[in-house]
Design brief:
Length: about 150
């Protein structure tokens, strides 16, 4: 997910309880670290082993399997290397929390540096937070638009 800025005009729903509050706080910290490009903070927020799901796409250099905190945090660095940071946008329309699970839904867009082509589309991100760290990161996005933007 490309983030230069994260507009959070999100409607939100939260199950009451400390689990949901903790999940919401970690996800908000995750979003802030992404916007700031704080890789060290992202590494600290991801668990040692992460259930990472993002449809593998050989045409897109930053989309690949990951499983460790360092690999997951490095996705942001790789994304910024291959896209134009000034053109990166992500907006969150919904931020739902239920216990240890959070789902963010919104829209993402950007430009691939090597081709100058843009991509855009909706996304959904399912995160699970356990013991204050992200253990699941499943991202669903318009992979066709991104692959087409990467094609020369």
């Amino acid at each position: 997910m490309s983030v230069k800025s994260f507009a959070t005009t999100a409607s939100s729903s939260t199950t009451t309880g400390s689990g949901a509050d903790s999940t919401r706080a970690v996800v908000q910290e995750f979003l802030a670290a992404r916007v700031a490009g704080d890789i060290a903070r992202l590494v600290a927020l991801f668990a040692d082993e992460v259930d990472w799901l993002l449809a593998e796409n050989p045409a897109v250099p930053w989309i690949r399997p990951r499983s460790t905190a360092t690999e997951c945090a490095a996705q942001l660095t790789e994304l910024m290397e291959h896209t134009v940071p000034e053109d990166a946008r992500a907006s969150v329309a919904n931020f739902l929390v239920d216990g240890t699970d959070a789902v963010l839904m919104g829209h993402v867009s950007g430009t691939v540096r090597a081709t100058g082509k843009s991509f855009e589309g909706p996304f959904a991100l399912h995160l699970t937070v356990e013991d204050g760290r992200i253990t699941r990161h499943h991202l669903y996005e318009n992979s066709l638009s991104i692959a087409e933007a990467c094609a020369t």
